[in-house]
Amino acid sequence: MIRATQSLLFAVIYSIYLVVVMVPVQGLVIRPLCALNPLRRPAILRWWFQVQAHWVLGLARHLGGLRLHVEGTLPEAPLILVMNHQSLLDIPAAVSLLRGPYPVIPIRDKFTRGFPGISGLSRLAGFPALKQGERATRAEHAAMVAAAEAVARGERTMILYPEGHRSRDGEIQPFMTQGLKLVFRHAHQHPVYVVVIDGMWQLRSFTDITLRLAGQRAEVRVLGPYTIPAERGDHEAFIASLREEMVTTLDRLRGRETTITLAGPGAAGRSGAPDLAEASDPPGSRSASVASHAPRVG
């Protein structure tokens, strides 16, 4: 009963905050400041994003009863962040980790309207709006290219959720690779970081958060940096290696045992699990083996 009350209280207070505080402040203060001070716009939006991310996570933790544990940090630099998708809280969790430029996040078209505060912020920050059809429209492609070029210039940080949808069981779904390839082509000089989150999949929707936020425990691991291959032909394998690293990390977070099959002298085969070198690394370690297509920086 106490947990149900905590969850409901968080949902009520956050909803009131969105309508009573975020919407008017964003419309009457933040947007005019950005228009009047274009040179200060990046700093203003960076601050505003951080305020929103830390506010919602702080409220979820201290009032809603969410337990969130993070291992790893990101540098104060432009980068490309690839993350798995379990919950509506994934985005504030990712934004709270950023120490460089404010984010650009490709989002589904429906979120650009009808969601108090959130829709306005996505438009203010110039998020590419995607309908996720079989083929991107010219406008969608142009928006993605513009976002990737902003990252290349060091003006933005790209956050990508390549599964495209929130996972129903927390397992990492197949990647939609076209967006990743486009970003890698245009911003290949910046490092890629991977964030794996687990424990949020029971909070997929706002209704889920309202009913069961309290008592949920979420783990976050930051991995990287990884260098994007110079050759475009290597991007497919690079993406596959990033996903493999994410799957391996999720397995560790869930305490899954590794199954090692020796294929011959000095060889190790994998059966849905890390090889010997990977199995020896501690959870969240950045020394875990990744395919040769994903070299690390430094």
What is the makeup of the main sheet? 6 strands, mixed
Shape: globular
Alpha-beta classification: alpha/beta
**Mean pLDDT, all residues:** 88
Could you explain the architecture of this structure?
- The chain has 298 residues and is an alpha/beta fold.
- The chain has one domain (2-253): Glycerol-3-phosphate (1)-acyltransferase.
- Helices cover 43% and strands 15% of the residues.
- The protein has nine helices and ten strands.
- It has helices at 2-36, 41-62, 90-97, 118-124, 138-152, 177-186, 206-212, 235-253, 276-279; strands spanning 67-71, 80-83, 103-104, 107-108, 129-130, 157-160, 192-198, 217-226, 260-264, 267-270.
- The strands form three sheets. A six-stranded mixed β-sheet has the order 1-8-7-2-6-3, sandwiched between helices.
- Helix 4 links the parallel strand 4 (107-108) and strand 5 (129-130).
- Helix 1 (2-36) runs parallel beside helix 4 (118-124) and helix 2 (41-62) crosses helix 3.
- The longest helix has 35 residues, at 2-36.
- It is globular and about 55 Å long.
- Mean pLDDT is 88; it is low at 260-298.
What's the arrangement of secondary structure elements?
Layout: H1 2-36, H2 41-62, E1 67-71, E2 80-83, H3 90-97, E3 103-104, E4 107-108, H4 118-124, E5 129-130, H5 138-152, E6 157-160, H6 177-186, E7 192-198, H7 206-212, E8 217-226, H8 235-253, E9 260-264, E10 267-270, H9 276-279
Parallel strand pairs: 1-8, 2-6, 2-7, 3-6, 4-5
Antiparallel strand pairs: 7-8, 9-10
